Amino acid sequence: MAILKVARLGHPVLRKVTETVTASELKSQMMQQFIDDMIVTMKEYDGVGLAADQVHESRQIAVLEVAGNPRYPEKPEVPLTVLVNPKITPLGEDMEEDWEGCLSVPDMRGRVPRYQRIRVEAWDRKGKPLDFVADNFHARVIQHEFDHLNGKVYLDRMRDLSTLTFLTEYVRYWLK
How many C-beta neighbours within 10 Å does residue 20 have? Predict the structure, then answer.
């Protein structure tokens, strides 16, 4: 397994809509290795999610896991999940604004509004259909990664850029 290079804000790959993955592509050893590498990369950088375009592959794949993460220690656990060709549907209009960071926008945080409850339809890494409901932080992580797959970053969703802050200042002034 390899730790992949993370694309940073400004790289064109982050602004493209990613390509759908076919069932035969997904089953290939190369694609399975890529998914393993994405998981290792996400964990190496203490991420709770990672989209394929963040590691320079314009494909509809995202991985996520929240478990003892030092960047989000108070958040509830989410099991390791691989989402291929995901679609999300908001369940209701309730939104919550909360802090987000991103491996492609290093050392920054900002407050982003997200739907509190969503339905997720996708394939897992073996091509089996997934259909589940995600709430709160789990839903936030999925929406963040879904945005990446559609050429957006969390900065595009911020209503008020005055909350955009470096991580050190976030810890010093906002995290109280």
Answer: 10
For the chain, the DSSP string reads: --PPPPP-TT-GGGGSBPBPPPHHHHHSHHHHHHHHHHHHHHHHTT-SEEEGGGGT--BSEEEEEESS-TTSTTSPPEEEEEEEEEEEEESSS-EEEEEEEETTEEEEEEEEEEESEEEEEEE-TTS-EEEEEEEHHHHHHHHHHHHHHBT--GGGG-S-GGG-EEHHHIIIII--
**Catalytic-labelled residue, pool 19, 96, 145, 169:** 145
What would the pLDDT profile of 101-146 be if each residue is shown by its tens digit? 999 999 999 999 999 999 999 999 999 999 999 999 999 999 999 9
Averaged pLDDT, 19-39:
98
Q: Tell me what pLDDT residue 68 has.
A: 82
Is residue 145 among the annotated active site residues? yes
Within the chain, what is the greatest distance between any pair of CA atoms? Answer: 50
